[in-house]
Design goal:
The complex is a heterotrimer of chains A (343), B (228) and C (276). Chain A has 343 residues and is of the alpha+beta class. Chain A is 23% helix and 33% strand. Chain A has 8 helices and 20 strands. The model of chain A has no long low-confidence stretch (mean pLDDT 86). Chain C has 276 residues and is an alpha/beta fold. The chains are: A alpha+beta (343), B mainly alpha (228), C alpha/beta (276).
C-alpha cells in the first residue's frame, strides 16, 4: 500500500485561548481527492494552512510522505501549494507572477513556453494576458492566474480553500478542470474545501466534515450543533424552531462542560410520514430540501431540514428507492437519546 | 510683501551666476542629507522590518518610544550630538564638531526613527495573504522577507521621502553641530536662518526657493521610479 | 544575507570617507569663535582672506553670541576667540581659560530709535536717556542673549542706577543677533542699543535711509572694545596655541590694522583699529 501523503496526529491549534482545531488523526492518500465541508469558522482554513505548512500548529504532528515536517522545511517547499478564496497576486505582471515560484527555485529553462502552457491550462491566452499587470485583471482572471502560478510548479499536493467562491462561472469551471487535470497528469493529491457540494460529490473520493475544529465523516455521523438548553428538568435539550416551544431533541446528560452532541447515522431510523412508530424518545419531522448523487458510490447525499435544524443524510440507492425519496418529501427521523454521544 | 518678489528674482540670479556661497551651501546640504539618508535607510529599513514582522515581549513599548522620537526637536538633537562630539565629550578626539560629518550624524539620529517607525507600520499592515502566497509558491525565509519588502516598495519610498524632507529642512542640528561656517558647514537652511536674522529677507526667500527646487527635483526623479 | 553585508560595507566606506576628508582639513587650520557683530557686518569675510594669504594658515569661524563663544573656548571646541566683552574676558583669563588678550579694534555703542523719538531721549546722556525710556515705558529691544552687546547694555542700566527691567512689558528681549534685534525695533518703533558697525550695515542694507536713527552717542561708557583671546594650553592642550598667537599678532600688525581701518560702508568706518 502506498504511504499516506499526509498523516495528522493529535493536532490542536489555538488562537489565544480559543481552540480552533482538535483532530485526533487524519490520513490523506496519495493521489486522492478529498472534499472538506463545514460552516464558516469551523477551522477549515486553519486546517488547510497547517497542511500547507504555512502555519505551525500549537500542538501535534504533521507527517508528510512518512516524515514529520514543519513550516518552511525544504522538503515540503513547493511540493505543497495552497490556493485561497480571495484571489491574491503579487504586484507585478501575470508573467512574473507565474514565473515567481520557478525563479526562486532557479528553474529558468523554457520559461516562456511553460508559462504559455500554464496559462492555457486555466483557459487564458499568453498573448492576451502574459503582460497584463496585476491590477488589470478581473477577480476570476486573477484567481486563474494564481492557479496557474501553482500548477506550473507541478506540486504533489494542491490544497484549495473555497477556490471558486469569489469568481465568475467561467473561471470557476476553468479552475475545477485544471485541478482535476493536475491529478490526471501527475497524480496530484487534492484537498478541496468548498460549499459547492455538487462538485465535491461529483469528483471527490472521500468527504470530511469539520465543525468546531473537529472532523466527522460526512454522512456517517451527524453533529447536533449547539446551542443547547441545559435548564430543562428532563435533561439537556436542543430546540428546533423557537426556544421553549415546539419540537426539541432530547440529549443524554452531559459530563464535560463543553463538547457537542453527535449521533451515528446507523442509529437513526427513517420513515415516511405514514408509518409512525413508537419506542423512540426523539422523533423529528422534516423534509428533504436537496438531493445530490455521489459520483463514486452512486449514493445519494441529501439535506434534511426541520425548521432551523438540518442534517446531511446519506442513502444507498436501495434505501432511496424504498423511501421514494424526492426533494420536498416529508420524512420522520427516529432515534433514542441514549444513542447520542457527547464529544 | 515686495521682498517675496525680490526673493524670486534673487533666486534666479544666484543660480544663474553660480554664486559660490549659494552653491557651496547647496553642496553642503546635499552631502550631509544624502549621507544621513543612506545610513538611516540602511539601518532603519531592516530594523523597521524586524519590528513590524515579529511579535515579541517588548514590541509595544518599543514602538511607543520610537513614535515619540518622531517628535524630537532638531535643536535638542543638535545639543545632544554636541555634548558627545565636543572636545569635552566622549567622542571629542574625532574632531567632528563644526564638520559636515557631525551634521550627518545628527541628521541620521533624526531620520532613523522616522524610517523605522513608518517601515514597521507598513510591514505590520502587510496582507497576511502575501506571506501565505509566498509560502505556497515555495519561498524560503530569505525570499519571503525580500519579496515582502519589494511588494511594499511604494510605502517604503514614502518613508524615505518623509525622512528626507525632515532632514533637508532642519536647522537646529546644522546650526548647533555645524557652526554655520561659510563655505564649509553653512547649509541652505542655516544660510536662510542667517540672512533672515540679518534682515536680508529677499536673500532668505531666494535660498528657500533653491531648497524647494532641490526637494522638487528629488521628488520628480522618485516619481519616475513610481511609474515603473 | 549578501545584500545586507554589501550595504553595511558601503555605509562604513561612506562614513570613513567623510571622516577622512574632514580630518585632513583639520591639520593646518585654525577654528575661531566670534560674535555676530564681527560676522554680520562682513568684516571677517573681508579681512580673513588676507590673513590666510599672508600667513598660509586657514581660518574657519563660527559666529555665535559672546556667551556661547566663551563657552566653546572653555570646552576647547575652538582654538581662538574674537569677542567684545572686556570684563568677561579678564575674568576668563583669571579663571584659567584664556591666556593672552590683544585689543585690536573698537567702535562704540549707540542708542537708536524712531525719528519721532516719543520718549524724547535725543542728545541726552546715556543714563538720562535710559531713565526717560523707563518713565515713558517706551518699547526697548534688548538682545537678551548674554552676548557682548547684551552684557554692555546691562552695564548701562546698572550705571544709570535703574534695576534691569527684565519683566517689564515694554522691555523686549529678542534672544537674537544684532541685526535681527534692530529689525524688531524697527517694526515696533522702539529703541535699542547697537554697536555703530552693525548700525551702519543696517543703514547700508536699506539704501542709506532706514527708519531708525542714532539718538544717543558719545558717552565714554559706550566704548566697545574688541579683543583676540587665545586659550590657555593648560586648560586646552589640544588647542592650536601657536597658530592662535600668530592670528593675534597678525590682527595687531600694521597690515591688518590698516585693513580694518579701510573697511567702510556708506563711506563710514565700522571699526577703529587700536592695537598697541
Amino acid at each position: 500500500m502506498t504511504q499516506a501523503t499526509y498523516k495528522l496526529n493529535q493536532l490542536q491549534h489555538y488562537y489565544g485561548d480559543k481552540r480552533v482545531l482538535d483532530i485526533d488523526g487524519l490520513q490523506i492518500q496519495k493521489g486522492s481527492i478529498t472534499g472538506l465541508t463545514g460552516p464558516n469558522g469551523s477551522g477549515k482554513s486553519t486546517l488547510l494552512k497547517i497542511m500547507a505548512f504555512a502555519l505551525k500548529p500549537t500542538a501535534g504532528e504533521v507527517w508528510f510522505n512518512g516524515r514529520r515536517e514543519v513550516p518552511l522545511s525544504p522538503r515540503v517547499r513547493s511540493r505543497v501549494t495552497l490556493l485561497t478564496q480571495k484571489p491574491y497576486l503579487l504586484k507585478r505582471s501575470v508573467f512574473d507572477n507565474i514565473a515567481y515560484g520557478l525563479k526562486i527555485r532557479r528553474d529558468r529553462d523554457n520559461l516562456d513556453s511553460r508559462i504559455k502552457e500554464a496559462l492555457a491550462s486555466v483557459g487564458l491566452s499568453y498573448e492576451g494576458f502574459a503582460h497584463r499587470q496585476w491590477h488589470q485583471l478581473s477577480g476570476g482572471e486573477a484567481q486563474r492566474v494564481a492557479m496557474a502560478a501553482r500548477l506550473i510548479l507541478k506540486p504533489e499536493v494542491l490544497l484549495l480553500d473555497e477556490p471558486v467562491a469569489s469568481v465568475d462561472t467561467k473561471s470557476a469551471g476553468q479552475i475545477r478542470r485544471a485541478s482535476l487535470t493536475a491529478r490526471k497528469d501527475w497524480g496530484c493529491t487534492l484537498v478541496i474545501a468548498s460549499h459547492d457540494l455538487p462538485w465535491l460529490y461529483e469528483c471527490s473520493d472521500t468527504q470530511i466534515s469539520i465543525a468546531n475544529g473537529r472532523l466527522f465523516s460526512t454522512g456517517k455521523e451527524h453533529i447536533i450543533p449547539p446551542p443547547y438548553d441545559l435548564s430543562q428538568k428532563k435533561g439537556p435539550v436542543k430546540w428546533i424552531g423557537t426556544k421553549g416551544k415546539g419540537e426539541y431533541i432530547l440529549l443524554p446528560p452531559r459530563e464535560k462542560p463543553d463538547g457537542f452532541a453527535v449521533i451515528q447515522q446507523e442509529k437513526i431510523r427513517i420513515c415516511r410520514e405514514k408509518e409512525k412508530k413508537t419506542g423512540w424518545d426523539n422523533q423529528i419531522t422534516g423534509e428533504i430540501t436537496s438531493m445530490l448523487m455521489e459520483k463514486s458510490s452512486h449514493h445519494i447525499m441529501t439535506t434534511f431540514q426541520a425548521k432551523n435544524f438540518s442534517l446531511n443524510i446519506r442513502f444507498s440507492p436501495d434505501q432511496a428507492a424504498a423511501l421514494k425519496l424526492l426533494p420536498g418529501k416529508r420524512l420522520i427521523l427516529m432515534f433514542h437519546s441514549r444513542d447520542i454521544e457527547w464529544r | 510683501m515686495d521682498f517675496i518678489v525680490a526673493g524670486f528674482i534673487k533666486a534666479i540670479e544666484l543660480l544663474i551666476n553660480f554664486d559660490h556661497s549659494t552653491y557651496t551651501a547647496v553642496s553642503a546640504t546635499l552631502q550631509a542629507s544624502t549621507c544621513s539618508m543612506l545610513i538611516s535607510l540602511g539601518a532603519g529599513l531592516p530594523c523597521g522590518f524586524l519590528l513590524g514582522y515579529f511579535n515579541f515581549k517588548w514590541k509595544r513599548p518599543l514602538r511607543t518610544v520610537l513614535d515619540t522620537l518622531l517628535a524630537l526637536p532638531t535643536v535638542s538633537v543638535g545639543l545632544l550630538v554636541y555634548a558627545f562630539i565636543s572636545s569635552q565629550g566622549p567622542l571629542g578626539q574625532f574632531g567632528l564638531l563644526f564638520t559636515l560629518t557631525g551634521i550627518a550624524i545628527g541628521q541620521t539620529i533624526l531620520a532613523f526613527p522616522i524610517v523605522t517607525a513608518i517601515t514597521a507600520s507598513i510591514v505590520e499592515n502587510i496582507d497576511p495573504e502575501l506571506k501565505l502566497t509566498l509560502v505556497s509558491l515555495g519561498a524560503g525565509k530569505r525570499n519571503i522577507i525580500m519579496t515582502c519588502l519589494w511588494e511594499v516598495r511604494y510605502g517604503l519610498l514614502a518613508a524615505a521621502v518623509t525622512a528626507y524632507g525632515r532632514v533637508l529642512t532642519e536647522v537646529g542640528i546644522s546650526m548647533m553641530v555645524g557652526g554655520n561656517i561659510k563655505y564649509h558647514t553653512r547649509t541652505i537652511t542655516t544660510a536662510i536662518a542667517l540672512e533672515t536674522n540679518k534682515g536680508m529677507f529677499a536673500d532668505g526667500i531666494a535660498l528657500g526657493i533653491v531648497l524647494i527646487g532641490i526637494a522638487f527635483a528629488v521628488n520628480i526623479s522618485l516619481s519616475f521610479l513610481r511609474k515603473q | 544575507m549578501h545584500g545586507k553585508k554589501l550595504m553595511s560595507n558601503l555605509l562604513a566606506g561612506v562614513f570613513l570617507l567623510v571622516l577622512a576628508t574632514n580630518s585632513l582639513a583639520g591639520e593646518k587650520g585654525l577654528m575661531m569663535a566670534t560674535t555676530t557683530s564681527t560676522d554680520n557686518t562682513g568684516l571677517l569675510e573681508y579681512l580673513i582672506p588676507h590673513f590666510e594669504q599672508e600667513t598660509g594658515i586657514a581660518l574657519k569661524w563660527t559666529a555665535t553670541g559672546t556667551g556661547k563663544a566663551l563657552k566653546l573656548g572653555q570646552n576647547c571646541d575652538v582654538d581662538v576667540l574674537l569677542v567684545h566683552a572686556p570684563p568677561a574676558e579678564k575674568a576668563y583669563i583669571e579663571n584659567g581659560y584664556g591666556k593672552d588678550r590683544q585689543e585690536v579694534m573698537y567702535n562704540d555703542f549707540v542708542i537708536v530709535g524712531p525719528q519721532s523719538d516719543p520718549a524724547n531721549i535725543k542728545g541726552k546722556s546715556i543714563s538720562d536717556a535710559l531713565a526717560a525710556v523707563k518713565s515713558h515705558t517706551a518699547p526697548f529691544m534688548s538682545r537678551g542673549d548674554d552676548s557682548g552687546t547684551n552684557k554692555k547694555e546691562k552695564l548701562l542700566w546698572k550705571a544709570a542706577q535703574i534695576p534691569l527691567p527684565d519683566t517689564e512689558a515694554w522691555y523686549v528681549q529678542t534672544g537674537q543677533g544684532m541685526l535681527a534685534t534692530i529689525n524688531v525695533a524697527q517694526e515696533k518703533k522702539g529703541y535699542t542699543m547697537t554697536d555703530r558697525g552693525t548700525y551702519i550695515k543696517y543703514q547700508d542694507s536699506r539704501g542709506g535711509n532706514a527708519p531708525l536713527k542714532i539718538l544717543v552717542e558719545g558717552d565714554e561708557i559706550l566704548l566697545n572694545q574688541y579683543s583676540v583671546l587665545t586659550l590657555d594650553p593648560a586648560n586646552c592642550p589640544k588647542a592650536k596655541y601657536d597658530l592662535a598667537l600668530k592670528f593675534s599678532d597678525w590682527m595687531a600688525s600694521a597690515s591688518a590694522q590698516k585693513l580694518i581701518g579701510d573697511f567702510r560702508l556708506l563711506d563710514q568706518k565700522l571699526f577703529i583699529p587700536n592695537a598697541k
